[in-house]
Amino acid sequence: MIHYKAILKVMGGLMMLLGILMFPSIAFSYYYQSGDQITLIGSALICLAVGGTFFYSFAKQDQNIRKREGYMIVASSWVVMSVFGMMPYIFSGSIPVVSDAIFETVSGFTTTGASILTDIERLPEGILLWRSMTQWIGGLGIIVLTVAIFPLLGIGGIELFVAESPGPTSDKVHPRIRETAKRLWLIYFGLTLALVALYYLEGMTFFDAMNHALTTMSTGGFSTKNASMAYFDSPVIHYTAILFMFLAGTNFTLLYFAFKGRFRRIWASDEFRAYSISLILLICGIAAAMYYLVPGEVEPTFRKAMFQVVSLVTTTGYVTADYTAYSNGLTIVFFMLLFMGACAGSTSGSIKFIRHLTFVKNSTLEFKRIVHPRAVVPLKINGERVTGKIITHIMNFLLLYLMIFVLGSIVMSIAGYDLITSFGAVATSLGNVGPAIGRVGPVDNFAFFSPFAKLFLSFLMLLGRLELFTILVLFTPYFWRAN
Amino acid sequence: MIHYKAILKVMGGLMMLLGILMFPSIAFSYYYQSGDQITLIGSALICLAVGGTFFYSFAKQDQNIRKREGYMIVASSWVVMSVFGMMPYIFSGSIPVVSDAIFETVSGFTTTGASILTDIERLPEGILLWRSMTQWIGGLGIIVLTVAIFPLLGIGGIELFVAESPGPTSDKVHPRIRETAKRLWLIYFGLTLALVALYYLEGMTFFDAMNHALTTMSTGGFSTKNASMAYFDSPVIHYTAILFMFLAGTNFTLLYFAFKGRFRRIWASDEFRAYSISLILLICGIAAAMYYLVPGEVEPTFRKAMFQVVSLVTTTGYVTADYTAYSNGLTIVFFMLLFMGACAGSTSGSIKFIRHLTFVKNSTLEFKRIVHPRAVVPLKINGERVTGKIITHIMNFLLLYLMIFVLGSIVMSIAGYDLITSFGAVATSLGNVGPAIGRVGPVDNFAFFSPFAKLFLSFLMLLGRLELFTILVLFTPYFWRAN
Ligand SMILES: [K+]
Ligand SMILES: [K+]
């Protein structure tokens, strides 16, 4: 049986944390006298009260959380955060419709960054900061999940490439989770602080610097400006954003190594090399294509290409140019970037390089296997042999991802949207990117969708964010029958 | 080293066969006095002369054809057939442009059925019959390949599901190939003859009956009429076509069992069951959707749904209705059918049910594996355990197929076509279907494409027809380095 009380206790703790994380917004709200003070204080108090009640009611519960409780905690965390996190939007009247508020909150916590807001700049400062904060919280949550918790649950088949060592023995699970999580949190927090300072020194207001630092490090992509990062007409801000999107897309275990000065271990990572080299090739190729299609000055074109490529590959979703305005060929290339994702163990979403790498390496090996049918042809990543079980799991993930993309697109088409918009909305939601193609291009928003479509896309964001299996396994009889 | 002379000998034999197979066209040409007699006789004589020269020059070559020669023979067979098979089109002036003639011939031999002809009915009868004959030859070729030869070469990972018994010992390969091939040929020939008789009795002219029988059994889909099967306003003809498309999409080994009265073995096939049940579900669902969108009489709507579904799933590509005219949702569903394919060991193309089944079964098992990480959870098909090597190979095939679809679509977009047309043209070429969506919908043709696009799509047809790996392995260093 499942220990529901232990789960409720964790949820209680999470709600309290959420309430505490509303305080920075309250502070900005008072500073700007933006009129949303009472709303935010009320929301924070509700979180603390409800969360506290749950937490202390079940405080005596044993900590014995097993794999199945782990799955339920992961899934329900995101649901609880979304339900409680949307209070400021609704109470303040900034987003009065519930389906809209759910969409915006899920888009925040999943670090997707798609928005139903048609005029972002109209929102009071407190709410805007809360909106950015949801992404930052979601980003932190996902790093802790993927680096510290997923390896224990065996989710997504990428656990072996994220964890530092093969796998913990069951008796030292708790201290290890805590220690790893602490390191990750420090790096995440430290980089965010550094980025606030940089953005501020480069000319943003402190408020904008803070918001954009929160949504850059989480590869979230929410902006306080309707024009997104294009609003800041400053090359140095753009290059800073590019650098930090790149870092946010790196496996945080590697960032920890970098912090410790062990740079050799970074370049030893096959995924990091694939990520870096692919970005360079994509940027050069796309910059050349953009320059060919719309000749102009070299540096701005190159910067546009670099910004858009890094933003989409890391699934951040900031934009500084309408990448669908060049040509059909370039539009489809940008569309494909929605399926990339950066590294496992980063804040980025979508498929991620480790899986692409596994597929590409295995594909070449399949030819070798055809020519030498009796030879044993193992697949190696980071110098270590990957078991057949993991290869199967990863390839199954890839196919499942594409199948959900296809089925999702069919649902959206039946709901009445044109094919390109359906493809775009589903791909960008599932990949936690933000902008897409068609009617949800880089200069559009998601306001026009029906409430059904908004809820459906929210579900896809959650599905993608939690590596599909984490959510889907809850719908299988295997999960509920197990003992 | 590779025994090129042995390969050339086989090519010689193939050319002679091609020449002989032009004689039925010559007969019709004389009967109708359609003016293409000399052209066809000339083409046949060239095939016989060139083929004979090759065959008898290398007649003394040892028959020791190994795996690598096998691959080269398979790939070059289709190229040689296309080059020699297009002579009637060019010499008669029916299709004077070489890129058009290549497209039409490759589309024929690969049983794709996409056409660059804007007015099919304008062509002389001899040429029309040759056009249908290319599909029939291609269909026969692919059954013999998949059932008798691919299992020996280990292509596509589906060999184990097609062959009757686990695998031959090397010393009795030749007699077994010959015997299996003979059975398949007899069933194929017998069913085609029966279908000529049926179509004729149901009201087609003998000429039309013959043409459509050739292109039904090969799941080719070329028609002698601009309106395709919609020209024949006869329910009984449509239902006959549906039945025989269904049979042509069945594993021919199973048809042989049926012929021998061993029906139990047919229903024991997981793939056949998946194929039959999926068709029923698709037909009912799509018929209901069509009826909902365009209310009308029940039987014609049901027949339309049935015809279109069976035609696309078996990759035949006949049409009796514009399936893109209903709604966005239904269009995308029909588009997805381009990725289905019928059974392995049939004349159909595309992905095929055995691979879909492997993916679907493995997906459910992955959840079981997550919940019970230490349990051994084997995948079984037809009651037998499928090895991890084959699962990996099949999933890799699926991903490679989708990747080629994506890369192909990018190439077509860059070549200047809109996204939907690019997706459609690539999917239908790779899947050997024929019609698609966008500007290559069921009532369109491929005439407007540039010569580059036509040659590119021809290459994709070949790639899809030969299960990707057969062609692609020739581009790898493994193949050329092996001894
Ligand atoms: K994002
Ligand atoms: K076809």
Automatic annotation (TrEMBL), chains A, B:
Protein's UniProt keywords contain Hydrolase: no
UniProt topology in membrane: Multi-pass membrane protein
GO molecular function: metal ion binding; potassium:chloride symporter activity
Ligand binding (K(+)): 111-112, 220, 315-316, 432-433
Keywords recorded for this protein, A-Z: Cell inner membrane, Cell membrane, Ion transport, Membrane, Metal-binding, Potassium, Potassium transport, Transmembrane, Transmembrane helix, Transport
GO cellular component, one term: plasma membrane
Ranges that cross the membrane: 12-32, 38-59, 71-91, 136-163, 184-201, 236-259, 271-294, 325-345, 398-420, 455-480
Pfam families linked: TrkH
Cellular location(s): Cell inner membrane
Similarity annotation: Belongs to the TrkH potassium transport family.
Protein name, per record: Trk system potassium uptake protein TrkH
